[in-house]
Amino acid sequence: MTTKVYKSNLSPIKYADASRSVRHVFVRDLILSGSIGIYDHEKEKEQKIRINIDLCVKEEQGPLNDDYANVVCYEKVVEGIKNIVHSGHVHLVETLAEKIADLNLIDPRILSVRVRVEKLEAIENTTSVGVEIERHKSA
Q1: CA distances from 102 to 8, 18, 21, 97, 134 (A)
Q2: Contact 97/131 with Cβ under 8 angstroms?
Q3: Contact, 129 vs 123, CB < 8 A?
Q4: What's the confidence (pLDDT) of residue 93?
Q5: Of 19, 45, 58, 132, which sits 20 to 30 A from 39 (CA to CA)?
Q6: Tell me, what's the pLDDT at 12?
Q7: What is the predicted pLDDT for the residue at 92?
Q8: 23 pLDDT above the threshold of 90
Q9: Mean pLDDT, all residues of the chain
Q10: 118: containing domain
Q11: In a domain, 4, yes or no
């Protein structure tokens, strides 16, 4: 059996900014199977979804002390995304993107988030279809 390789078409963005003490934390090309879509056949069978996330993170004033508790942990970001994707059927990629953004904006260190959700098998003869959103923490 041949495994299909999904190539990213995501262009990098610049979230890191030393003048604002901002760090860029990201996850690239997370491929998950999830129940998403408005059509009956999409509700019956999971499909491949690619998720990319960029986090604009305010750097702490104190030293990191080489301790992951002092940073936004991308492993926890991925676990949160997996929990959302596996929590049940979602009709819209927009809804999934908003849920992922909302979850990450709970962290007080995260100033803004960009989320891209792509369905990789939804439309024949395309690499992917989906949505990208950017959300900022409310003042």
Answers
A1: 24, 25, 23, 9, 11
A2: yes
A3: yes
A4: 97
A5: 132
A6: 54
A7: 97
A8: no
A9: 89
A10: 18-136
A11: no
Q: What is the DSSP letter of 129?
A: E
In a domain, 121, yes or no: yes
Q: What is the CATH number of the domain that holds 41?
A: 3.30.1130.10
Asked if residue 8 belongs to a domain, the reply is: no
CA distance 74 to 95: 22
Q: Within a domain: residue 7?
A: no
Domain total for the chain? 1
Tokens of 27: 């996850």
Which residue, chain included where needed, has tokens 């030393």?
A: 18
> Is the pTM value of this prediction over 0.90?
no
pLDDT in tens, 57-99: 998 777 766 777 778 899 999 999 999 999 999 999 999 999 9
